[in-house]
Specification:
By secondary structure, this protein is mainly alpha-helical. It contains 7 helices and no strands.
């Protein structure tokens, strides 16, 4: 019994790596609320926002940078450290839908290459 309690109360080895919690981590920021409203209804990670507002705030603040948002989503979905409990299945599905949407959105917004523009102009 005491070993179980020791295991539950033992310090997480990653505690030293994490920044200290802030009061703002408990609720969505204005940036996160705007980001959520701008997402298509089917892509909004509502469960993530309710259960993990700190994660949602981080995603929202990096969403404009395609590389950072892709890396962040990948890090959230993969256990690189080993031993993570992971997110609940519903939140994981939301993160996967966001990753797909992010990748799709970035392809659609990709600027045309010079060669593509020239070939289109020549064909015209």
């Amino acid at each position: 019994m005491f070993r179980v309690l020791e295991t539950l109360t033992a310090a997480d080895p990653w505690d030293a790596e994490r920044r200290p919690p802030r009061h703002a981590d408990e609720a969505l920021t204005g940036t996160a609320r705007q980001w959520l409203r701008r997402l298509p209804a089917r892509r909004r990670p509502l469960r993530l926002c309710i259960a993990f507002p700190r994660v949602a705030n981080t995603l929202a603040s990096h969403w404009c940078d395609s590389v950072q948002s892709a890396v962040l989503l990948e890090d959230l979905l993969r256990d690189r450290r080993g031993g993570r409990h992971g997110f609940p299945p519903q939140v994981t599905r939301e993160l996967r839908r966001l990753r797909e949407f992010n990748a799709q959105q970035r392809v659609e917004l990709r600027p045309e290459a010079v060669g593509e523009v020239l070939s289109r102009l020549v064909a015209w």
